[in-house]
Amino acid sequence: QVQLVESGGGLVQAGGSLRLSCAASGAVFAINAMGWYRQTPGNQRELVAVMAKHGNTNYADFVKGRFTITIDNNKNTVYLQMNSLKPEDTAVYYCNAPLGTRTGLLEIWGQGTQVTVSS
Predict the structure, then answer these.
(1) Are 48 and 57 in contact (CB under 8 A)?
(2) What is the dihedral of CA 24, 29, 35, 39, to 10 degrees?
(3) Residue 30 carries which DSSP code?
(4) Which of 64, 68, 92, 97 is the most exposed place for a label (fewest CB within 10 A)?
């Protein structure tokens, strides 16, 4: 099994920056990609950014030009550099790793880290 542990969340003023980290442990050889999602109360979890192990990326429109996802394969860690933060970026951010199994992909989630952006 794979375990994901996020860190780096906190409180920041609008226009500021935060860097989130997600460290994977366990059966990391089964990870096909790593990414970040976010969720606010009453809303479904939404994609922020994802990167496959070979380097292809996908960003939500609302973060393009502001957020950057990177992966350090040697450390089994994915990062989300968040610049020019806006109050609407306030959410719980979750790390995600799809695992390849014999029957398909199994989604693994971290516990989440709170990001709060003040006006």
Answers:
(1) no
(2) -60
(3) G
(4) 64
Which amino acid type is present at position 16? G
Q: Average model confidence (pLDDT) for the chain?
A: 94
Listed residue (91, 88, 92, 93) closest to 119, CA to CA: 88
Q: What is the pLDDT of residues 30-76, one digit of tens each?
A: 888 999 999 999 999 999 999 987 889 999 999 989 999 999 988 99
Instruction: Using DSSP bridges, classify how beta strands 10-13 and 113-118 pair: parallel, antiparallel or unpaired.
Output: parallel
Rounded Cα gap, residues 86 and 93, in angstroms: 14
d(CA 38, CA 62): 12
Burial status of residue 107 (CB atoms within 10 A of its CB: 0-12, 13-18, 19 or more) = exposed
